[in-house]
């Protein structure tokens, strides 16, 4: 009996501690965001650092986005065409693929790619600086580490992830066109006409809003995890892993939330 | 930070901005906007399969779309689906117009087909309701027809069943068989009676046959020497003799042997001449056929025919291409002002100050493809640095640097191709390799241009590599042929960057023809 009570007590303690940890984490992240906001509006404005980070986040990810985008468009077109051929509506393939890519696949897959490549690097870089006390040294030298390290990364991600998402969209459209028109023989005129007919500017702005939010979130998580890393090399490794896992999950959860909100204002 | 960083980040931003602009422009082209359309209503009892943006077609061509569907009370008080249609102003719809649903696929998607009605009826104005609406689609109609056919077949089989099944049906069948049996017996009796009659009236039948024999004998007499038929034959013989005589007379006339038939002789000579001519023609035709002489070669040698055909094709293609070729002449003049203040020991920004004139020709084989050839007089010119070293004895005492700017004429030759709102160019820009892009907006009145060239550019003072020359500017057409332009030149190279503004005059073939026709002649 005492053993059962002890196990029950242990489970309750674990659940309680987890809840407390969760809310504490939320509070800390909010505090971190507030510091970023505060630091971003105060001088000095570090344009060079912003450009460096933009190059790392954006330019460095272009190649992987080109590959991912092209094959996503191509594969999605192959699958959709097979389904649409059964009901004689092959001309709908282009608009269907582009609608899915513009609203969902471009922002989500781009953000996941950038999380894997950039979010992890941010966590590692900042985590290493934290455990080797370089961040503490900056504070001693009266250099605000948030202003110097975090703000350029978050702003660069907020600008470059939407740009990458648009490049993804263009390349996916090209992939879809090549497979649909050249390989599967779908009529080129019908393919383009359906795209023009069924897609609205809203579909592209929809994806763009998501990409901006995802860019902020993935960099915020990467920086937060790295900035608060502790425990030497192992702590840096943990921070990197958590940055990628939490970043990826957050993108999917936020995708659902944002879609629900954005569809309220959708024209149809 | 690497010197390439701003360039690369800028490139990604520009590509992304272009992409977004293209997608937004492509998908926001709504030819069924409020200005270009008027709206009509139609009440459907069944609006399944049609929705917002469903197409409205006349003769298979899109003329409108559905803007809205909502429930309203119809004239009978029943709920109906009221569909608001946006129809292009170019299409008039009349009171007797018919609107019906047509299936687009097996998925249950429909479009609306419209017969616009006859102009004899009243024209429907904005907000009117189309009265003739067929809510059932062609699929629904086929379904209902099949249903009717099935009902009819069912009724027939039911009737058969009622007639044939049960004791009554069995009785009916027996009665039918019994009647058939009786009919067969009656036929048998009739044939027996016919045989008996023939036997009984054998004498009468013989008499009938005798009469037939006498009739044929009378017919033979009529055909004899004094019979009517013989006289008829004699008359025909005489008629034939007369006709022969007439024919002989005609022959004499033609041959001219009658003496008094002078005209007939002339006719004969003419025929002889004609025969002689025909013989000559036959001889020529034979030679041609045998491949003799030039004509024979041309006619019989298939290679010559192929060459002639090919030559005609080439000529046709060339003439067609030339007739399609459009030419535009462009005169561009702009004044540049340096951005940076002069610093001693550095290149003088004043070198970029001045008026730049460009004379260009666009040769356009197709509306979306053209070639640009330009001659440019630029104040920047070509800079040459000359070092003068003064040596006295073994030691160098002074080194003088002289920068000379040569205002040489520069040339550009580019190939340009337009894709929707974007034109891409590449080729030679101001004597160096380069590329450029134009973004067209506001129905082509506004052009945003970006040129990049001189990629292997070096600082003339220290021979270090500097940024390529970029030039970004906007052109706006205020009145026909006249553009105003402003922009920035060489923004990444300090002491070389400049603002510039100016104007462009652009004329095409038609304008040039008009101008030349009124120009004074020497």
Question: What does this entry look like structurally?
Answer:
Chain A is built from nine helices and no strands. Chain A is mostly helical and 268 residues long. Chain A has one domain (46-264). The longest helix of chain A has 40 residues, at 2-41. Chain A is globular and about 65 Å long. Chain B is 39% helix and 34% strand. By secondary structure, chain B is of the alpha+beta class.
Quick description:
The complex is a heterodimer of chains A (268) and B (522). Chain A is mainly alpha-helical and 268 residues long.
Number of domains of chain A: 1
Low-pLDDT regions of chain A: none
Low-confidence stretches of chain B: none
Cα-atom radius of gyration of chain B: 50 Å
Largest interface: A-B, 33 and 29 residues
- SS content category of chain A: mainly alpha
Name of the top-level CATH class of the domain at 325-518 in chain B: Mainly Beta
Q: Shape of chain A from CA axes?
A: globular
Largest sheet of chain A: none
**Biggest pleated-sheet summary of chain B:** 10 strands, antiparallel, barrel
Quote the average pLDDT of chain B: 81
Write down how many β-strands of chain A occur, each being a DSSP E stretch of 2 or more residues.
0
Determine the strand fraction of chain B and express it as a percent band.
25-35%
Count of alpha and pi helical runs of chain A:
9
Give helix and strand order of chain A, one letter per element, not per position: HHHHHHHHH
Secondary structure: helix percent of chain B: 25-40%
């Amino acid at each position: 009996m005492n053993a059962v009570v002890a196990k029950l007590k242990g489970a309750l303690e674990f659940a309680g501690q987890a809840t407390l940890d969760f809310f504490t984490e939320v509070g800390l992240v909010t505090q971190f965001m507030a510091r970023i906001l505060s630091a971003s509006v105060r001088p000095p404005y570090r344009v060079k650092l912003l450009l460096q980070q933009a190059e790392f986040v954006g330019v460095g990810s272009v190649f992987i986005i080109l590959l991912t985008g092209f094959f996503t468009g191509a594969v999605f077109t192959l699958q959709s065409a097979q389904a649409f051929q059964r009901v004689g509506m092959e001309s709908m393939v282009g608009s269907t693929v582009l609608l899915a890519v513009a609203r969902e696949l471009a922002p989500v897959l781009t953000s996941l790619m950038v999380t894997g490549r950039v979010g992890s690097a941010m966590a590692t870089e900042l985590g290493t600086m934290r455990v080797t006390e370089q961040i503490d040294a900056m504070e001693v030298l009266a250099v605000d580490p948030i202003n110097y390290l975090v703000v350029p990364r978050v702003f660069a991600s907020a600008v470059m992830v939407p740009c990458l998402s648009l490049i993804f969209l263009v390349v996916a459209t090209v992939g879809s066109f090549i497979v649909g028109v050249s390989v599967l023989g779908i009529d080129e005129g019908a393919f383009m006409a359906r795209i023009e007919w069924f897609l609205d500017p809203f579909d592209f702005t929809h994806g763009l809003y998501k990409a901006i939010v995802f860019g902020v979130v993935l960099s915020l998580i990467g920086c937060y995890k790295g900035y608060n890393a502790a425990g030497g090399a192992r702590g840096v490794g943990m921070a990197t892993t958590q940055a990628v896992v939490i970043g990826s999950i957050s993108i999917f959860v936020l995708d659902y939330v944002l879609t629900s909100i954005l569809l309220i204002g959708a024209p149809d | 930070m690497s010197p390439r960083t701003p360039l690369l980040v800028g490139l990604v931003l520009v590509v992304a901005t272009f992409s977004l602009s293209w997608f937004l422009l492509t998908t926001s082209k709504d030819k069924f906007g409020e200005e270009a359309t008027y709206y009509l209503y139609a009440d459907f009892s069944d609006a399944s399969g049609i929705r917002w943006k469903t197409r409205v077609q006349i003769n298979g061509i899109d003329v409108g779309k559905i803007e809205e569907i909502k429930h309203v009370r119809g004239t009978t008080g029943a709920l109906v689906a009221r569909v608001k249609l946006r129809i292009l102003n170019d299409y008039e719809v009349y009171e007797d117009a018919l609107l019906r649903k047509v299936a687009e696929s097996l998925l249950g998607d429909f479009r609306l087909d419209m017969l616009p009605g006859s102009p004899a009826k009243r024209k429907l104005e904005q907000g009117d309701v189309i009265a003739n609406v067929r809510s059932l689609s062609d699929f629904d109609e086929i379904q209902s027809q099949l249903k009717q056919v099935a009902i009819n077949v069912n009724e027939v089989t039911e009737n058969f069943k009622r007639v044939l099944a049960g004791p009554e049906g069995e009785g009916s069948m027996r009665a039918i068989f019994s009647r058939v049996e009786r009919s067969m017996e009656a036929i048998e009796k009739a044939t027996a009676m016919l045989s008996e009659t023939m036997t009984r009236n054998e004498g009468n039948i013989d008499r009938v046959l005798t009469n037939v024999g006498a009739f044929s004998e009378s017919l033979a007499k009529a055909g004899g020497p004094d019979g009517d038929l013989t006289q008829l034959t004699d008359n025909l013989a005489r008629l034939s003799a007369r006709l022969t005589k007439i024919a002989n007379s005609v022959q004499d006339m033609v041959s001219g042997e009658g003496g008094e038939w002078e005209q007939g002789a002339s006719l004969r000579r003419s025929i002889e001449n004609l025969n002689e001519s025909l013989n000559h023609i036959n001889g020529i035709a034979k030679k041609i056929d045998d491949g003799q002489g030039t004509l024979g070669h041309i006619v019989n040698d298939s290679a010559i025919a192929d060459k002639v055909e090919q030559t005609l094709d080439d000529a046709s293609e060339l003439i067609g291409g030339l007739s399609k070729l459009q030419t535009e002449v462009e005169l561009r003049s702009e004044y540049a002002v340096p951005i940076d203040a002069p610093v001693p020991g550095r290149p003088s920004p004043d070198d970029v100050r001045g008026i730049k004139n460009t004379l260009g020709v666009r040769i356009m084989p197709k509306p979306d493809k053209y070639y640009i050839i330009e001659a440019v007089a630029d104040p920047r010119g070509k800079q040459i640095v000359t070092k003068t070293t003064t040596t006295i004895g073994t030691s160098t005492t002074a080194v003088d640097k002289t920068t000379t700017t040569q205002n040489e004429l520069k040339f550009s030759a580019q190939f340009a191709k337009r894709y929707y709102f974007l034109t891409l160019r590449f080729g030679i820009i101001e004597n160096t390799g380069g590329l450029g892009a134009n973004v067209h907006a506001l129905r082509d009145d506004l052009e945003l241009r970006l040129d990049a060239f001189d990629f292997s550019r070096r600082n003339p003072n220290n021979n270090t590599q500097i940024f390529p020359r970029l030039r970004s500017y906007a052109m706006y057409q205020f009145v026909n042929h006249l553009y105003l332009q402003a922009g920035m030149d060489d923004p990444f190279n300090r002491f070389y960057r400049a603002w510039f503004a100016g104007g462009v005059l652009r004329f095409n073939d038609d304008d040039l023809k008009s101008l030349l026709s009124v120009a004074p002649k020497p």
